[in-house]
Amino acid sequence: MSFVPDNRSGNWSVETFEVPKNDPTQIFSIMKSGRGVPPGTYKRLMRGGTVVMSNTPDELFDFHKVQHLAHGSVLINGLGLGCLVRVLLNKSEVTQITVIEKSEDVIALVKPYLVDSRLTIIQADAFSFQPPKGARYDFVWHDIWDYICSDNLKQMAILHRKYARRSGWQDSWARAICKQQDQRWKKQERAYQSFSGMYQ
């Protein structure tokens, strides 16, 4: 899924990149998530030197649940490469998609390749955007983070509260993994405090 051509706008760019065979250093270092990538040719959205999104298998699989369950009116926070939008536009069950994207440059790079009367892309910050009065969405998906990190959970909680009464279903990119990281860190912190207390 590489329908957006290589291009640059401001500090943002869409780039084609290659993951060669038998090169574990590249396979595990190029991804924002730190997950493995099979050899192949892919696209990535860059902000300066930071990989914000790619169309590698693991990242596309993150949309699996939304892809199969989405219907009706959908709101997406974060445009990225437009991969999820493109998939949802192929579903007749999806009647409307609203995308909130903060970067004018990302919109300039991606929007021209997502032409559909059901799609509205709004340049706004996900946290300050105010949905129209009475608006309700069947599905809401939040995907505005560069990396999988438990620190993202606070922002996820803010967005989930914001749309709690406006959505039939919502989730955030890699939220379950972030929760697992948070639990692991808390467990390690408790173990450290218990251990260090023995030497005080």
TrEMBL record:
Descriptive protein name: Class I SAM-dependent methyltransferase
Highest taxon in the source lineage: Bacteria
Database matches in InterPro entries: SAM-dependent_MTases_sf
Annotated source species: Spirosoma sordidisoli
